[in-house]
């Protein structure tokens, strides 16, 4: 047990060891002498024994002076040891007092050579002069221990450097897309097409990306794209390799007398430090205000995928760290709970596992608001546990950096809320659980296609809740200073909004606090044909881009706008937008209302019937509405791709099945157009 205590205290000293090589002079000697029975009181602590034992003091001094005859170096190196005498042994002793003890024993010729000891396990009666072989083992033990602890920082840094390289590649591609878009459009050779079909566009296994893979209905997972999986594969492989390489196991060893115990200790230390090195990327990738999203052009979804996998890697290291240490302490497991660092380490590991458990797709996709609140609370306590676990040992820079990143994200959120100010939303309820908000806001920021906002409804209960909503500009030029969002009432916040509007007879002015805009804008101006495929409420995302292209009169592009929706009421709540597209004369509109119209009373939705009639008046070769039919989306879009001119973009936003169908369609048709085909997905995955 005393050995474990000494190694814990050595861990406390390691941050200074990294900065002060003189400590490498001290610890091998103190450790080597500690292998002998110093005749101390059995109840004395590690430092109480050593800091009061003249035999230990003189033996350690002789060892240090044998290695370095410069007494100034010895004095400099031993200062930290003296501080631990006071802090952990409650023994106040100075360098001069120790040095005087050594000189008295030296003058009295009290030293005994280790080789002359008849029984090395018996209590020492005089100071000793260590054999060179004993000292060599102690030095190798210390330097190996030092390396194995340092390897955690080194290998964890390599893992984070890997993510830095992934980000750099993404940022470079994004930069090229902005400064040399024509070059990107020209990259359409057969070899490029085959590469994209094999490695970038499909999901990891086939084309199930938006549709979660499930086991036993409870365990489900949103499968990354194949490009994302390539990045994740590199990370996973690095985790495995860097956990298993470069362990220097040897006997005899000053600390551990078996290979088994050595590997447990080295693996425990390495994985514990590696877990801490994950903190900055974990919090950066999971935040809304992520500067890397701007640099790479990646969506919040992409960073969320990486955030979840980094969290899994971090908790995996924490679990290995905890299990290895539990094996290491063996029969002293219960006694370790007397140490605060051990208790907080257990708390942190349990909380880390709990965070992973409550973050499964099944829970977060069904109870997002509850998931988010619990997630944040657990994360806070997890950070607190990690802080108190290592506050005396070091590596706190990883904790502090995560605090800084989290604080930055929260401060920027508050700044956005203050800058955006309050908005006034003219809110209206429509059939089939649809609500629509026309928002007058401060105009301190400008809307752009692909943007979304979070908003807080100013009410006594639930004002802290926020959801991402796609926004678009009002189609009426006289109201272009307003933004619009549409939503479907499900659970939580959206259901509360629906209920509020229901109580207010279907319409109400709601005061909002806006946080945004967020999101990346796809550059569509270099495509000759732009195909937009929307399903249900996803039409708000595709409309934003289509309307933006139409507003640019100098752009001569073929725009195909396809909307598949279940209900006839869509022609009511989205009538102005469809009218705007139809009147442009530049957009081929194909709308499919899959559900047969249901009879309603004359008084119910009379205004909706009027708008439906208006919308039907635009039926023409450029604008068609088909009812009671669900189209074959794959064949429909494939036909448009084959008929397209030049470079073609396919943007989709809809339910998971539609998204994955379009992903497969785009992949299969990369070589069937007259130019490059790009697949763009606007979707929020849980």
Describe the structure.
The chain has four domains: 2-130, no CATH class; 143-202 and 229-410, no CATH class; 421-518, Elongation Factor Tu (Ef-tu), domain 3, CATH 2.40.30.10; 529-598 and 607-681, Rossmann fold, CATH 3.40.50. The relative contact order is 0.07. The longest helix is centred in the N-terminal third of the chain and has 48 residues, at 132-179. With 686 residues, it is α/β, with parallel strands linked by helices. The protein is elongated. The protein contains 26 helices and 17 strands. The protein has a seven-stranded antiparallel β-sheet with strand order 8-7-11-5-6-10-9, with helices on both faces. It has a six-stranded parallel β-sheet with strand order 15-14-13-12-16-17, sandwiched between helices. The protein has a two-stranded parallel sheet with strand order 1-2. 55% of the residues lie in helices and 14% in strands.
Features:
686 residues; alpha/beta; Elongation Factor Tu (Ef-tu), domain 3; 4 domains; 7-stranded antiparallel beta sheet; 6-stranded parallel beta sheet; 55% helix; 14% strand; disordered N terminus
List the helices and strands and how they pair.
Blueprint: H1 2-19, H2 23-34, H3 46-52, H4 54-67, H5 71-89, H6 95-107, E1 112-113, E2 128-129, H7 132-179, H8 181-186, H9 190-200, E3 213-215, E4 219-221, H10 226-244, H11 259-277, H12 279-285, H13 291-296, H14 300-329, H15 333-336, H16 340-358, H17 361-366, H18 368-390, H19 396-420, E5 422-430, E6 434-440, E7 452-457, E8 467-470, E9 472-473, E10 482-488, H20 493-503, E11 507-518, E12 529-535, H21 539-551, E13 558-565, H22 570-573, H23 575-584, E14 587-593, H24 606-616, E15 623-627, H25 633-643, E16 648-653, H26 656-668, E17 677-681
Parallel strand pairs: 1-2, 12-13, 12-16, 13-14, 14-15, 16-17
Antiparallel strand pairs: 3-4, 5-6, 5-11, 6-10, 7-8, 7-11, 9-10
Helix pairs in contact: 2-4, 2-5, 2-7, 3-5, 4-6, 7-10, 7-11, 10-14, 11-14, 12-14, 12-19, 14-16, 16-18, 21-23, 25-26
Pfam family, one: NAD_binding_6
Keywords: Cell membrane, Electron transport, FAD, Flavoprotein, Glycoprotein, Ion transport, Membrane, Oxidoreductase, Signal, Transmembrane, Transmembrane helix, Transport
Subcellular location: Cell membrane
């Amino acid at each position: 047990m005393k050995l474990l205590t000494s190694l814990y205290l050595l861990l406390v000293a390691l941050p200074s060891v990294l900065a002060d090589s003189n400590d490498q002079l001290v610890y091998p000697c103190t450790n080597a002498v500690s292998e002998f029975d110093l005749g101390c009181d059995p109840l004395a602590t590690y430092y109480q024994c050593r800091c009061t034992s003249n035999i230990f003091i003189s033996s350690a001094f002789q060892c240090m002076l044998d290695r370095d005859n410069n007494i100034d170096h010895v004095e400099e190196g031993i200062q930290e040891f003296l501080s631990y005498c006071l802090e952990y042994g409650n023994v106040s002793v100075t360098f001069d007092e120790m040095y005087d003890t050594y000189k008295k024993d030296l003058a009295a010729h009290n030293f005994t050579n280790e080789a002359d000891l008849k029984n090395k396990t018996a209590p020492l009666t005089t100071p000793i002069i260590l054999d060179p072989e004993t000292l060599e083992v102690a030095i190798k033990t210390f330097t190996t221990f030092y390396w194995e602890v340092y390897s955690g920082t080194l290998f964890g840094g390599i893992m984070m450097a890997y993510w830095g390289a992934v980000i750099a590649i993404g940022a470079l591609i994004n930069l090229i897309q902005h400064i040399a878009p024509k070059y990107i459009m020209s990259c359409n050779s057969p070899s490029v097409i085959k590469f994209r079909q094999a490695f970038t566009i499909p999901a990891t296994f086939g084309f199930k990306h938006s549709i979660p893979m499930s086991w036993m209905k409870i365990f489900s997972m949103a499968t990354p794209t194949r490009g994302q999986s390539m990045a994740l594969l590199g990370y996973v492989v690095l985790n495995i390799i860097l956990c298993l390489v470069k362990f220097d196991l040897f006997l005899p060893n000053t600390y551990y007398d078996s290979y088994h115990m050595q590997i447990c200790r080295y693996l425990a230390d390495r994985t514990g430090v590696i877990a801490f090195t994950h903190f900055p990327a974990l919090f950066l990738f999971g935040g809304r205000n992520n500067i890397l999203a701007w640099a790479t052009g990646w969506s919040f979804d992409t960073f969320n995928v990486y955030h979840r996998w980094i969290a899994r890697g971090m908790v995996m290291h924490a679990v290995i760290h905890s299990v290895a240490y539990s094996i290491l302490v063996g029969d002293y497991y219960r006694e370790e709970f007397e140490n605060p660092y051990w208790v907080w380490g257990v708390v942190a590991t349990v909380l880390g596992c709990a965070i992973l458990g409550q973050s499964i797709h099944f829970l977060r996709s069904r109870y997002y608001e509850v998931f988010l609140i619990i997630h944040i609370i657990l994360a806070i306590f997890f950070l607190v546990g990690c802080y108190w676990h290592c506050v005396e040992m070091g590596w706190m820079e990883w904790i502090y950096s995560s605090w800084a990143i989290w604080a930055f994200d929260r401060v920027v959120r508050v700044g956005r809320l203050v800058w955006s100010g309050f908005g006034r939303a003219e809110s209206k309820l429509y059939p089939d659980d649809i609500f629509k908000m026309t928002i007058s806001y401060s105009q301190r920021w400008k809307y752009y296609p692909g943007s979304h906002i979070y908003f807080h409804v100013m009410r006594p209960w639930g004002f802290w809740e926020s959801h991402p909503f796609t926004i678009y500009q009002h189609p009426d030029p006289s109201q272009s200073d307003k933004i619009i969002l549409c939503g479907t009432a499900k659970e939580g916040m959206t259901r509360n909004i629906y209920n509020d509007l229901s109580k207010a007879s279907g319409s109400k002015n709601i005061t909002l606090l806006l946080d945004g805009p967020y999101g990346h804008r796809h550059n569509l101006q270099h495509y000759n044909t732009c195909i937009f495929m929307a399903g249900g409420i996803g039409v708000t995302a595709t409309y934003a881009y289509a309307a933006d292209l139409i507003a640019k009169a100098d752009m001569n592009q073929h725009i195909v706008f396809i909307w598949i929706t279940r209900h006839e009421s869509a022609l009511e709540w989205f009538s102005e937008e469809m009218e705007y597209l139809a009147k442009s004369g530049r957009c081929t509109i194909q709308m499919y209302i899959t559900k047969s119209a249901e009879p309603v009373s004359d008084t119910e939705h009379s205004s909706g019937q009027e708008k439906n009639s208006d919308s039907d008046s635009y039926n023409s070769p450029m604008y068609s509405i088909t009812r009671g039919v669900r189209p074959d989306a794959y064949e429909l879009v494939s036909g448009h791709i084959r008929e397209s001119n030049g470079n073609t973009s396919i943007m989709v936003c809809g339910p998971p099945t539609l998204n994955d169908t379009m992903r497969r369609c785009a992949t299969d048709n990369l070589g069937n157009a007259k130019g490059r085909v790009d697949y763009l997905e606007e979707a929020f995955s849980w």
